[in-house]
From TrEMBL:
Catalytic activity: L-homoserine + ATP = O-phospho-L-homoserine + ADP + H(+)
Protein name: Homoserine kinase
Protein's UniProt keywords contain Endoplasmic reticulum: no
Gene giving rise to this polypeptide: thrB
Family: Belongs to the GHMP kinase family. Homoserine kinase subfamily.
Stored Pfam families: GHMP_kinases_C (PF08544), GHMP_kinases_N (PF00288)
Main localization (coarse): cytoplasm
Length: 326
């Protein structure tokens, strides 16, 4: 991103929602989501020039879920960490004001915190003329996400930032790499409006797994990645199953088994828990069936006004600068 992107003294960065794990890839797979109706499912952050060193405001559908104290907002931590990263490069932060448009619910399983982190750091970097490269920015995003979830996990921030379907590598200096996707797949996601914290969802998992479960996990993940590269859609769909988290986390999501049963009857290739839940996802090939499932979920799985359902394809762009005004 060039420095001239910051024309008029402001930029707006958008970061899409993401679904981590995808049943078959606990902590190592994540996909960015884009509703097919053209709406934006994700957070936006405005960064604009100001006289004071830092100011922060929050707007949007889920802004009321955020802490009132700006210093308890993850965007404040992003500002501090980005400033430290600039200092290491002999640069200084410009006086600025940030506005977070919070469009994703907290604790939804759609990468809400990752959305805010990625949009904030993408915006800050563009505002300063992009002194941090992609790798360094992704490292910083992972660090910020880790402050919320209790550990560095890239399965939301990587797809949110880079787009598409990301395989988290974390070896040989490589954090994440994109893998091929099945363009004909529709991803129906539904957030019921309830909350499952990442900490609670991790606490319910066993400390140890049996050897057979570990072997099954590795075999299915390898098969999915291989099928993605070789275009074997039936094989890829057949291994979208979870032996690590879903057997335990399903108990935290009221109505999950009914959703899976109805989705299968409606033509879904697979159904699973998005991230740590309570959002669920289903993969379908037919647009009409996808819309029908969305309507059923809205009527039978959504619990309150905070909930929603969307028919999506994968967002191949990831985070981007969308303009200079919210």
């Amino acid at each position: 991103m060039s420095a001239d992107m910051c024309q008029g003294g402001s930029v707006v960065a958008y970061a899409p929602a993401s679904s981590a794990n995808l049943s078959v890839g606990f902590d190592v797979l994540g996909a960015a989501l884009a509703p097919i109706d053209g709406s934006l499912l994700g957070d936006r952050v405005l960064v604009e020039a100001a006289e004071q060193p830092f100011a922060l405001a929050a707007v949007g559908r889920y802004a009321h879920k955020l802490p009132d104290d700006p210093k308890k907002n993850i965007l404040y931590d992003c500002w501090v960490a980005y400033g430290e990263a600039l200092e290491k490069r002999g640069l200084t932060l410009k006086p600025l004001r940030m506005v977070l448009e919070k469009n994703l619910p907290v604790g939804s399983g759609l990468g809400s915190s990752a959305c805010s982190v990625v949009a904030a750091l993408e915006g800050l970097n563009a505002f300063h003329g992009a002194p941090l490269d992609e790798h360094d920015l992704l490292l910083l995003m992972g660090e910020m996400e880790g402050r919320i979830s209790g550990g560095v996990h890239y399965d939301n921030v990587a797809p949110c930032y880079l787009g598409g379907l990301q395989l988290i590598v974390e070896e040989a200096g490589i954090i994440s790499q994109g893998i091929p996707t099945f363009e004909q797949w529709y991803w129906v996601v539904c957030y019921p409006g309830t909350v499952v914290s990442t900490a609670a969802a991790r606490a319910i998992l066993p400390a140890q797994y049996r050897r057979q479960e570990c072997l099954t996990y590795g075999r299915r993940l390898a098969a999915f990645v291989h099928a993605s590269y070789t275009g074997q859609e039936p094989l890829a769909a057949s291994v979208l199953k979870d032996v690590i988290a879903e057997p335990y986390r399903a108990a935290l999501i009221e109505g999950f088994h009914e959703v899976r049963e109805h989705a299968a009857q409606n033509g879904a290739l697979a159904t699973g828990i998005s991230g740590s839940g309570p959002t669920v996802f289903s993969v379908l090939k037919d647009a009409t069936q996808a819309e029908r499932l969305k309507a059923w979920l809205e009527a039978n799985f959504v619990k309150n006004e905070d909930g929603f359902a969307r028919v999506c394809k994968l967002d191949l762009q990831g985070a981007r600068i969308t303009g200079s005004e919210l």
